[in-house]
Structure to design on (653 residues):
C-alpha cells in the first residue's frame, strides 16, 4: 500500500461579503500560492469540488481550470461536492500508483445567491423540494431532536458558537464575527443566527503526494493513515437524527480514536455535539482550533479546509495525529473522516 | 443575497420527471386523499415510500399499506419569518410526522394557526403531538396534495347563549322609576325599621312586607370591596373595584363599582358619592349611576360599619 500525505495547504482570506470578484479570481491566488509553496507547476492529477448551482451556470467548474493551466492537456476530474470528496478521489488515484502528486481544490461563493433556495433544490424532487423545505429548516428539526434526546441546552449551543467565533477571530483566514449576542433571537427555531454557519466566499487547495515525493516536498508530511466516507438515506424521516451513524462508521474505519485535534465540518452548533459523540472525541481532543465552519464556511471548500487545517497542525509540528471531517447533504447525510499522522 | 438579481436559472414550465411504480403509487393515493407506505422485506413500512429499503438497499416488496392519516410529530422547527419558497407567508412549523402504521417519518409543514411575522412558536407545539393532514381540495398527485398538517382536535369551544324575557317585579320597577329621575329609593321594614335598598316588598330579615317608601341620598360609606383583575363590560378598566356602599340612612349596603381612585388606595370606611351619567342619558336602568367615587370627608370608623359587612 502506498503512503499518501497532505504536503501543502493554502486557502483564501474568506469573506462574508461579495468582494466583486469571480470564483476563479478567488481561486487563482490560492492555486498560485500552493504551486509556489511546493515548487510544482504540473501535477499527476487534478481534482476539484464545486457546485454549479452556486454560480447558476452549467459546467461552471470548467472555467476554474484556467487557474490551473490545462495545456498541454492534464489529467483532471471534478466532483459536484465539497473538495474533501475530490481529495478522496485523488487519494485513490495516488494509492493505485498512477501518479505521485495531485492537486485538489474547492471553491464557492455564497454571497451572490440564495443558499437556502439552492439547497432546497438539492433535496429529493418528489417529497422534499416541492415543499420548499430548506437545509436550515431541516437542520433545526435535527437540532430539536438532538436537544430533546440528549438534554443539550441553548447555552451548550451558544458556547460552541462563542468558542468557534473566538477561534475564528484568531484565524486570519476566517471571518471576524462577534460573540453571540445575549439577546439573539431565533432564525429557524431552535437555531439562533450564531448557530448557523455564516455565508462565506472562499477557496482552498491541497497538494497530495505519495511516498518519497511527499518527503521531498514537505519536511513533515501529514500522512493519511485512514480515510473513509459513508452515506445515510437521504430522507431525514428515515434516519435517527439524534446521532450520526455514518460518521461513527467512517471514524471507526479511518481510525479516529485518540486524535489530538479534530477539525469538524459542523455547519450548525448542534452538529458539533453529534459529531463529537459519533467520533468518540473526549475533552482532550482540541475541536476546531481554526474556528471551524461556524467561523467561515466557503461552500465546497469548507470540508477540504477542515482536512487542510488538521494537516497544517502536523506540518507545523504542534500535533502528531489529527482528523479532518467533511459533511454533505441534509442533516449530516454524508460524512467523510480523514485521519492523518506525522509519523509513518 | 443581493437584492439586485441579474441572473435567473429556471426550467420554464417545470422539469418533467418520471416517478416509477413506488413513488407513483404513493402520489396517486395522495391524489385520492389517502396515504400509503410500502413494506420492506424486513416488514417495516416506509413513508414516504422509496424503491429500496434504506437499511439494506434491497428492493421493497410490492405491498402497499394504508397509513395514518393521523401521525405523531417526531421533531419540528419553527419558521418565524418564512422565505418565499416556503408554503406559508406567515409563521409555521416544519414537522417530521410518523403516520400511524409507518416506521419512518415524512417532512411537511404544520399550520399552527395565525401568528404575526416574527412570532415565537406556540406552547402547544411539541414533539409527540398528534397531527392530521389537511387535504387540498384540488389534488394532482404531488406531495403538495397535503396542503399541510393540522394538530389533532383536542379541545372544543362551544358557544352557549340563552334568551329570556324577565320582569323585575313591582319593587324593582318602582326602584328603576326612581333611578330614571335621579332618585334612589328604599323601603322601610316595619319590624326592624331598616331601610332596604334597592327597595324590596319584603324584609329579608323579618319576612314581613315593607310599608314605607324612603328616598335616600346618593352619598354613603364603603363597607367592604374587592379588586377585580378580570375584565367586565360594565367596568371602566382592569383592575376595577367592586364594593358595598352603605348609603346614609340605609340599613343594607348596595353593590356597586368604585372608581375615581387607584385600586390600591381604596379603604373600608371611605366616604363615597354616586357618579351619575349625564342627565340626558338617564333611563330606567341602574346604569344611570356609573360608579361611586370618593368625596373629601373623613373615613367612617370601622365600629360604625362593622354590622353592615
Ligand atoms: Zn496563458
Amino acid at each position: 500500500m502506498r503512503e499518501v500525505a497532505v504536503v501543502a495547504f493554502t486557502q483564501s482570506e474568506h469573506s462574508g461579503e461579495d468582494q466583486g470578484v469571480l470564483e476563479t479570481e478567488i481561486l487563482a491566488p490560492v492555486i498560485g500560492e500552493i504551486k509556489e509553496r511546493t515548487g510544482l507547476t504540473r501535477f499527476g492529477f487534478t481534482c476539484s469540488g464545486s457546485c454549479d448551482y452556486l454560480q447558476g451556470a452549467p459546467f461552471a467548474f470548467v472555467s476554474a481550470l484556467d487557474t490551473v493551466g490545462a495545456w498541454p492537456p492534464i489529467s483532471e476530474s471534478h466532483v459536484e461536492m465539497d473538495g474533501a470528496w475530490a481529495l478522496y478521489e485523488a487519494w485513490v488515484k495516488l494509492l493505485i500508483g498512477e501518479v505521485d502528486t495531485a492537486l485538489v481544490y474547492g471553491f464557492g461563493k455564497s454571497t451572490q445567491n440564495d443558499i437556502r433556495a439552492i439547497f432546497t433544490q438539492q433535496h429529493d424532487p418528489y417529497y422534499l423540494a416541492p415543499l420548499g423545505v430548506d437545509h436550515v429548516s431541516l437542520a433545526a428539526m435535527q437540532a430539536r431532536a438532538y436537544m430533546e434526546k440528549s438534554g443539550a441546552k441553548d447555552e451548550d449551543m451558544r458556547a460552541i458558537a462563542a468558542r468557534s467565533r473566538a477561534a475564528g477571530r484568531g484565524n486570519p483566514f476566517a471571518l471576524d464575527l462577534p460573540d453571540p449576542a445575549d439577546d439573539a433571537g431565533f432564525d429557524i427555531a431552535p437555531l439562533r443566527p450564531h448557530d448557523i454557519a455564516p455565508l462565506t466566499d472562499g477557496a482552498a487547495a491541497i497538494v497530495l503526494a505519495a511516498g518519497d515525493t511527499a518527503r521531498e516536498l514537505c519536511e513533515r508530511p501529514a500522512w493519511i493513515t485512514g480515510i473513509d466516507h459513508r452515506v445515510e438515506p437521504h430522507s431525514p424521516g428515515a434516519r435517527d437524527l439524534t446521532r450520526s451513524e455514518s460518521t461513527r462508521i467512517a471514524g471507526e474505519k479511518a481510525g479516529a480514536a485518540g486524535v489530538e485535534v479534530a477539525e469538524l465540518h459542523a455547519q450548525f452548533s448542534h452538529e458539533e455535539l453529534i459529531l463529537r459523540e459519533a467520533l468518540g472525541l473526549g475533552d482532550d481532543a482540541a475541536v476546531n482550533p481554526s474556528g471551524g465552519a461556524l467561523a467561515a464556511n466557503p461552500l465546497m471548500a469548507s470540508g477540504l479546509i477542515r482536512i487542510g487545517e488538521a494537516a497544517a497542525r502536523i506540518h507545523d509540528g504542534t500535533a502528531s495525529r489529527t482528523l479532518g471531517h467533511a459533511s454533505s447533504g441534509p442533516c449530516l447525510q454524508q460524512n467523510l473522516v480523514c485521519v492523518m499522522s506525522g509519523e509513518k | 443575497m443581493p437584492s439586485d438579481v441579474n441572473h435567473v436559472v429556471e426550467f420554464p414550465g417545470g422539469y418533467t420527471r418520471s416517478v416509477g411504480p413506488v413513488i407513483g403509487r404513493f402520489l396517486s393515493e395522495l391524489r385520492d386523499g389517502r396515504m400509503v407506505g410500502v413494506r420492506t422485506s424486513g416488514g417495516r413500512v416506509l413513508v414516504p415510500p422509496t424503491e429500496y429499503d434504506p437499511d439494506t438497499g434491497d428492493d421493497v416488496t410490492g405491498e402497499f399499506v394504508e397509513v395514518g392519516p393521523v401521525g405523531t410529530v417526531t421533531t419540528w422547527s419553527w419558521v418565524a419569518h418564512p422565505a418565499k419558497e416556503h408554503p406559508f407567508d406567515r409563521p409555521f412549523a416544519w414537522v417530521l410526522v410518523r403516520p400511524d402504521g409507518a416506521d419512518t417519518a415524512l417532512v411537511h409543514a404544520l399550520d399552527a394557526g395565525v401568528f404575526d411575522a416574527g412570532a415565537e412558536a406556540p406552547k402547544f407545539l411539541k414533539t409527540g403531538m398528534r397531527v392530521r393532514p389537511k387535504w387540498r381540495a384540488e389534488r394532482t398527485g404531488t406531495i403538495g396534495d397535503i396542503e399541510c398538517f393540522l394538530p389533532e382536535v383536542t379541545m372544543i369551544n362551544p358557544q352557549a347563549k340563552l334568551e329570556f324575557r324577565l320582569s323585575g317585579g313591582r319593587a324593582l320597577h318602582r326602584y328603576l322609576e326612581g333611578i330614571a329621575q335621579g332618585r334612589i329609593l328604599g323601603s322601610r321594614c316595619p319590624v326592624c325599621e331598616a331601610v332596604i335598598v334597592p327597595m324590596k316588598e319584603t324584609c329579608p330579615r323579618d319576612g314581613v312586607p315593607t310599608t314605607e317608601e324612603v328616598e335616600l341620598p346618593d352619598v354613603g360609606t364603603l363597607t367592604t370591596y374587592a379588586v377585580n383583575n378580570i375584565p367586565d363590560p360594565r367596568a371602566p378598566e382592569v383592575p376595577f373595584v367592586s364594593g358595598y356602599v352603605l348609603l346614609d340612612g340605609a340599613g343594607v349596603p348596595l353593590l356597586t363599582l368604585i372608581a375615581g381612585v387607584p385600586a390600591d388606595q381604596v379603604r373600608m370606611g371611605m366616604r363615597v358619592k354616586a357618579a351619575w351619567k349625564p342627565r340626558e342619558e338617564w333611563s330606567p336602568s341602574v346604569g344611570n349611576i356609573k360608579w361611586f367615587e370618593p368625596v373629601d370627608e373623613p373615613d367612617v370608623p370601622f365600629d360604625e360599619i362593622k354590622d353592615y359587612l
